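Exercise (ungraded).
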Amino acid sequence: MPYLAPEIILTALAIVLLLLEAYGAISARSVGIWSLVGIAVAIVVTLFTEVGAEPMYFWTDPNAAEGTAGKGLYMWDATARFYKLFFLGTTGLVIWMSMESAAQPVGPKTQPIRAEFYILPLFVAAGMCLLASAADFMVLFVSLELVTITFYILVAYQRESATALEAGVKYLILGGLATAFLVMGIAYVAGFAGTTSFAGIIAKYNTPDHLPVAVALGLLMILVGFGFKIASVPFHLWAPDVYQGAPTPITAFLSVGSKAAGFIVLVRVLNEAFGPTAYATWGPALTAIAGCSLVLGNFAAMHQRNIKRMLAYSGVGHSGFILMAVLSGGVPDGPGIAQAGMTAVAVYLATYFLASLTAFLVITIVSPTPEEESIRSYNGLWQRSPLLAAALAASLISLAGIPPFAGFVGKLGAFVVALQFHHYGLFFIAAISAVAGLYYYLGVVKAMFWSEPLEVTPIQVSVPTQVLLTILIFLLIATGLCMEVFAWLVR
Amino acid sequence: MNILPLFLLIIPTLALVAIVLRTCPKTAATVAATANFFLSAVLFYLYCQMGPAPFDFNLPWASFPGLPTIHLHFGLDGLNLPLIVLATTVSLAAILVSPADCKRKEEFFAYLLIMSLGGIGAFLSFDLFFFYIFHEFALIPTFLLIGIWGPQNRAYAAFQITLYLMIGSLVLLAGLILLVLSVPEAARTWDMIALQKAIAESLSNAATAGNTSAMIALSYPFLLIGFGTLVSLFPFHSWAPAGYAAAPPGAAMLHAGVLKKFGLYGLLRIALPLVHAPGTQMEPTWAAWVAAWQYLLLLLLLGNVLYIGFVTMAQKELQTMLGFSSVMHMGYAFLGLAAYSEIGFAGVVLMMVAHGLSAALLFGLAGEIQQRTGENRMDKLGGLASSAPILATFFLIGSMASIGLPGLANFAGELLIFMAGFKTYPSITFFAIWGVVIGGVYQLRAVASIFYGPAPEGLGEVKDLTMAARIPYLILIAALFLFGLAPQLLLQIVQPSLSKLFGGA
């Protein structure tokens, strides 16, 4: 069954690799390579699986109520395919980064990278791929937990270091709290609707009336749970510390994969489980969250000295931009979120994927130890390695949203949606925040290109990574100029 | 034939590739800029012979769900061709004046080429999307050029100019998106000319007129302030003097000469024709709203001419003075735009070209002076005319052009603008015209203090411009005289396009 192929391939591969590694039959590096191969296979299969005009459902309920017949637990459509590819690509690059950081010299308190560091991301990827297809709160919750619990392990991987432990504890406690909110919300919604399936809920509540108070409350609690995943204000408090303390590849995973996972379930739930009438509930809440994320994320990032912390806050800001695109609902008789909004979210995430992962790949190489994560360590990077400096500059300028880099296309889509749906105030906040964003991104560019280097030893980059970085820079510019490729991905 | 203008972009791109492949950067850049210069001259000649039709290059580029299809639409008409000639001329001069052996020379010339590419591309594009992103191309190179090679106060100035221009660009982007969204979904397009037609149609259709006029009226302040910031409309001007003072001469020439004209061009081409769309009527409330902004523009342009004029008089550093002076001259251009008549617009086009050339000339020469004396404070300079007579003559010609002396291109532009201004807004023009006197005072005072009088203690022998160093300035001066003595050369191509813009035959 090709529709479930990525999940099956990844889980099976992960279990086989775990067993092989447990009996000592395979080295950590080959585990990494096999993981990459598995992901490549999953990407190819997903890419060539057909997408129909209408979503396809699996595990349908034979006793379904009126109006929900033919809808099941798992759905396959263009959105699902796009996000699966997104998660597979993210995981592949994260494993590549892990292999890159395994090649770095080990500090006194750093754990060497072992095989499970490559295997656990496979489970995360399987969970995320399931999330992209979830059509039922049960599937959604179970796959979200698969992702989150695996992340608890990965974040605290460097268990000898105090910052990593702090990060692990924070992520565990706040993640647990967010999960509790999510479960509570699901309980309210499912309790009133009498079903956990998205189709059942929308069939019951897509009436011109307002949502019942308890269901609205449940929806808001679900939003709290998702708000944690996407690191939006005020549920972002974990992000800076966790991003700083976690190993850099895992930071990248959290900042791209986990954020996108939060967004796919957010748009799924708002689109599939709630109709346009629910906008009265979630619209104002998300508008406030988006505005606060934009301002706090971007302005707090201006004062950071640690590059991973800076990217954490900037990630909060990017969540604000994406939420702006999500806020394209409330049109009577329309879907929960307009098609334009769905596309804008996907495109923004795709550009963010390219830029953010490029940046973290460079950070993995330049900052092997926590002491080298300060922005000052990037002083004069241009002299030490032009390729790394160019890649980081391209990715940061793309994140700032300046053409011809991809990030501009993402921002353009979000801005168009905001203006189209008359969120002028939010647009104004977003524009100011984008300028604040440019300030701190340029701060790093300045360090790399003008400032005198602290040390002048050139940085060696392995040939495959050089090739990968060149491809990523090329993609950052090419997709910024030929945005047709995004249209093709999300069609 | 229709791909000929495309070469204006391909040639600098090839030069960039050559620099990456380790050709001598100045040689590569000079060859490209020279080729572009001659190509634009050829285009100018061919355009005079054949009109705009053969140069239209239109290729569907990308469609994007929720947005109209983006076209790669390049073309020439009487409004952008003068600016393209200006851009190639100034680019050539800017590259020629830049030292071949500066530090990190590969990057330096690459960034200059990208700036020039951005300017030319923006003027060449008839598609709003590419129009916008080509201008943005120049943002980061400007930041790096000021930051790495700037002579003084570079970090602050680099951040200031970049962030300021980014704000302006985002406000502008909002205005452009609102414009595109102002017409019914089926008619939406990024194409400037098609969009203008679609808006006119939508305004004459009773069902859609209300929404469209509201959206256009709403977009007008965004366009005005967005473009205005990019041209240093008072009070959004403070990036310009500081930025130009801190930029290396080549970058200041390109920015003041070419990229700053982007905002004026946008107002002339997009913003004003839309709110005054010929043969159509906006709803009265929205028309009043637009009129209110129009009056605000009139007040702000007086700020540009008079307030900034006095500020310019008080400047002590040469480059800062020139930066303020270029801000001040933008006031005249705004007057020509606000007057909204064919004469006024023709004056603005002439003035854009003239000011671009004269500003580039003066910034280049200011760089020469600072490089020779290590000094940019005017009261610490003096008597340079005796040791560097050619430099002094060039500077004097630039100053005369800037003041608006007949025979040099600026005069023709300013004359047309004031004529148009007197017709529409006589009282505002009466005040604005005093700017000419103010301009004369500060510009001549600068000439006197730098080149005449006793040389201050410690100012050693100043070398004059060498033969090779004179070439870029001679090009600019020749162009100033050419368009000053024969403004008809430009007007003959500007006028037909303007009558089309104003809804005539």
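Further reading is listed at the end of the chapter. For now, observe: Chain B has one domain: 7-501. The radius of gyration of chain B is 22 Å.
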